[in-house]
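Why does this matter for the project? Reviewers at the last site visit asked to see concrete outputs rather than summary tables. In response, this paragraph embeds two records directly. Each consists of the residue sequence and, immediately after it, the corresponding structure tokens. Nothing has been edited or filtered.
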Amino acid sequence: MAVTIKRITDFFEREVFTTKGQYCGRVKDVEIDLTKGRVRAIVVEAAKGTLLEAMLGGKKSIVVPYSLLSSFGDIVLIKFEISELKKVLPEEEKKEEKAK
């Protein structure tokens, strides 16, 4: 999948949906691997009233690894349904949630 985004700021504020059409929120930050020059993950700020917000509880955002993105254009598509997303997050996220 070729990405034609030229500036990092082009990532910000894009709306994020699952491939099943569930609205998640907007891209608020991007994690970049500077040694490889690639996007590692995006930070999605959960929109009020969405299933993602309910799933996150008190947290306002979630880190989604780039490998879980289906497409990135006018909108961002995540490969999984929101209810399944928690199962495939990196181990660091799972450990952080258990600590709470």
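We now turn to the second protein, recorded in exactly the same manner.
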Amino acid sequence: MKAVAPATYMAHVVDAEKRLNLLFDQLNNGAIGAESLAQLQALADAFRSRNYDQAQVVHTALAQFPDLSAPAMVGVKRLISMSRATPA
């Protein structure tokens, strides 16, 4: 996102990056259950296909999983919002 986001979004991009790093830490430490991992894969698939509506649906479902940190999920939500607003 940093490479394509407008300057006005940069504070949001930096904040989202910090929050997403929390999620990556959880992934690296094996602190995420199998069901959450499957949902994260669905989220990645939605992003890959640029289906941001589906990404939002998956994000909402992921927010219910207790093994995912709330700050990390805010980072995911910001990434979805910025992706919608940034031209491909």
